[in-house]
Design a protein that fits this description.
Length: about 220
C-alpha cells in the first residue's frame, strides 16, 4: 500500500463509546474491550489486518478480518480512511451483526494523490495496467474485462486477497496440467508395455517363464 501510511505501523489509536473501548492498530488489528465491572466482560479481536478496500483505483479503507468467532462467522471490521488534522479514531459503528465500521482520521490522506493505487505498484505491474488502459482505449476489451485485469493486478501486488473463485480457477488449471501429465504417462506406459511384451516373447523363446501382470 501507500508507503507514507506505514509510519502508522506499530501505533494504536483508541476510541471510547459508552462501555466499550475500541483500539485500532494499523496493519495489525482492531480490538474491543468492555469496560464494566462484570467478571466476564468481553475483550476480543474484531479483525486482523487482511487487505485493502479499493474503489475507483484509490485506497479507501483497510479490511480487518478473521476476528473472534461471532455466531457462525468471524468478526470483521472495515476502517475508512478520511482526511483530518490529527491521527485519531473518530467513529465506530456496527452496520450489521459482527461487521464493524471504523472511521480513522489522518492528515496522511489529505493530499488528493495520497491514496492512488498506481504509484504504489512495481514497474512491471504499472506496465500491465498501462497495457490494459490501451486495450480499453482501442476497444479491444470491455469495461468488465478491464476491471478484471485491474483486480488481478491488485491481487498480484498483494493489495487484495485472491477470491475463492480465483482459487477454484487455479485448481482447475492445475487439474488440466495434471491431465496433460496423465496423457504423457499413458503414452510412456504403452511404450513400456510393448517393450515388456517383446521381452516376454524373448524370454519364452529361451524357455524362461515370465511372471508379471502386464496391462493391469
Amino acid at each position: 500500500g501507500p508507503a507514507h501510511l506505514f509510519r502508522l505501523a506499530g501505533k494504536c489509536f483508541s476510541f471510547v463509546e459508552s462501555t466499550y473501548k475500541y483500539e485500532f492498530c494499523p496493519f495489525h488489528n482492531v480490538t474491543q474491550h468492555e469496560q464494566t465491572f462484570r467478571w466476564n466482560a468481553y475483550s476480543g479481536i474484531l479483525g486482523i489486518w487482511h487487505e485493502w478496500e479499493i474503489d475507483n483505483n484509490t485506497f479507501v479503507g483497510m479490511w480487518m478480518r478473521e476476528g473472534d468467532s461471532c455466531e457462525t462467522k468471524s468478526r470483521q471490521t472495515k476502517v475508512h480512511l478520511v482526511c483530518g488534522k490529527s491521527n485519531k479514531l473518530a467513529y465506530v459503528s456496527e452496520p450489521s451483526t459482527c461487521v464493524y465500521s471504523l472511521t480513522f482520521e489522518t492528515p496522511l490522506v489529505c493530499h488528493p494523490h495520497s491514496l492512488l493505487v498506481y504509484p504504489t505498484l512495481t514497474e512491471a505491474l504499472q506496465r500491465k495496467w498501462d497495457e490494459a488502459e490501451q486495450l480499453l482505449y482501442d476497444e479491444l476489451i470491455t469495461d468488465q474485462g478491464y476491471k478484471k485485469i485491474l483486480k488481478e493486478i491488485f491481487e498480484e501486488a498483494g493489495l487484495l486477497k485472491a477470491t475463492e473463485e480465483n482459487e477454484v480457477e487455479k485448481q482447475s488449471k492445475k487439474i488440466s496440467l495434471e491431465f496433460e501429465t496423465v496423457e504423457k504417462c499413458s503414452k510412456e506406459y504403452k511404450q513400456l508395455s510393448e517393450e515388456i511384451e517383446k521381452l516376454r516373447v524373448l524370454l519364452g523363446q529361451h524357455g524362461i517363464a515370465y511372471k508379471g501382470n502386464v496391462g493391469e
